[in-house]
């Protein structure tokens, strides 16, 4: 659905261009979440939004969305493997929120282009 699109490749490239945000962090950590917890929280929130905003999705289509999100989380774990258990900084948290919105937009585009035609 989305993980095999050019849009997904561009989003992953965007992440890799900003990997320096996750290296040698000295920023103040204030929320106690790990990088992985922040990713999971933000992606979950955005995918709930995708599904609730697209009530016409069938059960199977929703399951496809969930499987895609699992695949995305796996990719992120691989890319950020050295830092997923580190506390997330405020700057990282803001980037993760932006990244999750990009993923949501990609799902919205794919759903409206291919599933709800």
UniProtKB/TrEMBL annotation:
InterPro entries with a match to the protein in the record: Uncharacterised_A0KLC6
This protein's name: Topoisomerase II
